[in-house]
Amino acid sequence: MDELDCIKKKIEKIIEKSPIPEDPIHSKNTLKWVLKLKPDADDALQIAALGHDIERAISERKVKRQDYKEYDEFKEAHALNSAKILLEIMKECKASKVLMDEVFSLVAHHEKGGSEKAEILKNADTISFFDVNLPFYYLRNSVEETKRRFLWGYKKLPKELQRIVAELDYNNRKLAALVKKWIK
């Protein structure tokens, strides 16, 4: 097994055990969106897409929202924690230093973007949140909290990608109506 297969298998094995039921779907869906936004995405960007939220799947290492005053601080800590976990996995799989450095940087910046590739990851992750996670989030949280999280993510996207979110179809009629209302 080569280093890339090793990394991908370890990521998948960890995320499959996540207590958050949509995490395995979101991981693969983020990769799908990365490839839609950048069909020639390199190995680093693809690995980062699969593992960007890995820390959520490890209860004893998960960053907790209540430990942070600001939501953005929490998301930054979450991103850094996932990057550190992926670095450990890549070391176990004997990945090159170049690959480890790039994946670490991409995942550490997946909430805010910055570089061209980090922007692609941020946008793919955000679209995937709306595509996969939002219906689950809505079921677990209040309408007000769902609205806050929706708007936080929606505002991160460029206008042309906001249109993708506006066209997503939700099976939950109440959620679909709320999304239409929030977008206006």
Automatic annotation (TrEMBL):
Pfam families reported in the protein's UniProt record: DUF4202
UniProt cross-references to InterPro entries, sorted A to Z: DUF4202 (IPR025255)
Domain of life from the UniProt record: Bacteria
Name of this chain's protein: DUF4202 family protein
Organism: Desulfofervidus auxilii
High-level lineage: Bacteria, Pseudomonadati, Thermodesulfobacteriota, Candidatus Desulfofervidia, Candidatus Desulfofervidales
